[in-house]
What we know:
Layout: H1 20-35, E1 38-39, H2 40-47, H3 51-64, E2 67-71, E3 84-87, E4 93-98, E5 104-110, E6 116-123, H4 129-144, E7 151-158, E8 161-162, E9 168-171, E10 176-179, H5 181-189, E11 193-197, H6 198-209, E12 216-222, E13 226-232, E14 235-236, H7 268-271, H8 273-282, H9 285-307, E15 309-315, H10 318-321, H11 324-336, H12 339-342, E16 346-349, H13 356-370
Parallel strand pairs: 4-7, 7-11, 12-15, 15-16
Antiparallel strand pairs: 1-3, 2-3, 4-5, 5-6, 8-9, 9-10, 12-13, 13-14
Helix pairs in contact: 2-3, 4-5, 6-13, 9-11
Amino acid sequence: MTPQARRQLRPTGKLLQEDGRRHHRALLLQQLFRHGPASRADLARASGLTRVTVSDLIGELVGTGLVEELGAPATSRVGKPPTLVGLAPESTHIVGIDLSPDDRITGAVINLVGQVKARHSLELAGRRGADAVELVSRLAGELIAMTDRPVLGIGVGSPGVVDAQGTVVDAPNREWTDVPLATILRAELDLPVFVANDANTAALGEHTFGDTGDGGLMVLRVGTGVGAGLILEGALLHGHRAAAGEIGHVVVDPGGQRCACSRRGCLETLLAVPHLRRRLAEGDPTAVLTGVGEQLGAALAPVVGTLNLHELVLSGPQELLAGPLLEATDRTIRARTMPVIGDELVVRTSTLGDDVVLVGAAVLVLAGQLGVS
């Protein structure tokens, strides 16, 4: 399925006067990104900018190659037909990297409308700490070499708590503490780099290119660890110290297995891919998946009820998450929340499959470099 941009994030920053031209440029790119080709007059009406300003900015964007002239529309009008302009999807490419799988790191070359043009992955082979950072840099370099187009930037979805500067504050499964991943990659590759928590990145991908509806969205990312990305009223929720969504380290079984965070019985010890596969190897698959789904639903029901979420999207290996686990999660949440909340709740797996973090990483770059999402 070809991803299509669905909806933009609500801006949360304050516009500075010196950023006016860049803001106006982003308005036009956003309109073309979300709604497709348009005439200059249509762009002026939609953006509220003057025709002179639009003509000037579009001329600049055509000159850079980001926007292309497409000729007149197929429908005829009386008088001279307008010339349509549109985003040039292949004018520049983006490198997206997903660090959430438990056995490898994956990446892709992605165009400006979220289409994956090339893929590449490297086995982790037990690498942690500085060795894992070196592997990420190597993967990014090899992906850059796979495209003949200019690279707009590199987006990375990483497990753990990641701050606004792209520093991985804490990722126990990678043995990373205060690792300035964005700074390291930027220095080594000489390109803009944006790093965010993998669940937040998945939420951005689902929100922008997935089949999300209206209302609050939670994307639960299941990989080496477990985390959630939350989009509420059009804005990504970061929380205090950028740790919103760290539900994987909520204790659900105090007498359970030791977690990488040093506590016992975290949700991650039940649901993270390595732990879940180990449980499946030791017991009846349907019973194991149903039991884990019930525990997951019990952990998520207060969150769904408190935030009145409309959609819960499970993202990770389909063979583990779809079926009994998803059904048990859905059933348990509905049993533990008010009908006004549970009746219209959508619980599903991601329509973007394994690409959700990769295209979300592309959204990090699109937002950071072009101001679109």
